[in-house]
Amino acid sequence: KMATPAPRPAEARELRLSPSVRRLARESGVDPSGLTGSGRDGRLTRADMADEIARRRQGAPAGGENRRVPHDRMRRQIAEHMSRSVSVAPHVTAVFEADFTAVVAHRETTKAAFAAAGTPLTFTAYMIFAAARAMAAAPAVNSRWHDDFLEIFADVNIGVGTALGDKGLIVPVIRAAQSLTLEEIAGRLADLTERARTGRLAAADVQGGTFSISNHGVSGSLLAAPIIINQPQSAILGVGKLEKRVVVRNAAGADAIQIRPMAYVSLTIDHRIIDAVQTNAWLARFVQELETWPEA
Asked: CA spacing 20 to 30 A to 128: which of 12, 37, 40, 244?
């Protein structure tokens, strides 16, 4: 509880201070004589003094009250997992820019047919499709580090970060994405996302991932780096906000200024496993898959 002005005389307050409170007051320079606390008969405790010192250092307005929100199990697990990933793997991030003109055009002409079949067609489905096929350019991106060897996976099992509001996020996995059509990916993605947000995922739905995608642009960010690798995977793709930008393109042999739907795409890699050449080759192939999407 935050300390508040006390009506008792300063002399009486001073006699009731414990040695630990006196020490905090001396070290911080905060005068405790005008404060009352949460102890018996308004006695100022060490916790009260520590809260008052923190409030003054942060410039919090007088009369406000700090909140203490206990960590739930999911938040603790996320914290432990992220800390372990950073301590284990040296993270390096490369950033490319992707032109979504072809994808936007394809989606505009096909999303109604998908919806009629009960499947929403999102941009994330295209990203999963392109990421699975980009593995051919750098197979080590779809791998796991072991002390004595590198395990390169035959299947591309792609986890997609799904936000759960203030509770954090969960990463359901689309298995063998390299063998799925866009429609199959869209259907599985819709099912997993809906079950994730309603708390109906099974344990198997979030296990066995070999690569992850963070579509952080849906919440408005242009670029996030580094995005922490989902251990024991070797890399994670980040896709920023899709927005119209002015770009220079070649038209009839001459430079021309055009407006295109663009997004920054990043690949954060475990530098024990993947080097710059592989990282850039993967991103180049990923961007190529998106920018050369065939018309419907």
From this structure: 244
Distances (CA, A) of 11 to 6, 78, 267: 12, 49, 64
Q: Is 271 a catalytic residue?
A: yes
The candidate with the shortest Cα–Cα distance to 273, out of 89, 133, 94, is: 89
Residue 284: Cβ within 10 Å count: 14
Count CA atoms closer than 13 A to 50's CA, side-chain side.
4
Helix (H) or strand (E) holding 191: helix 182-197
Instruction: Please report the pLDDT score of residue 60 as a whole number.
Output: 52
Residues 122-144, buried b or exposed e (16+ Cβ, 10 A)? bbbbbbbbbbbbbbebbebbbbb
Predicted confidence at residue 40, as pLDDT, reads: 75
Report the C-alpha gap between 224 and 240 in whole angstroms: 8
Task: List Cα–Cα distances, 276 to 42, 150, 284, in angstroms.
Answer: 63, 18, 12
Task: State how far the Cα of 163 lies from the Cα of 223, in Å rounded to an integer.
Answer: 17
Q: Is 71 a catalytic residue?
A: no
pLDDT tens by residue, 37-73: 777 777 888 888 888 887 776 665 555 678 888 888 8
If you average pLDDT over residues 117-134, what whole number do you get? 97
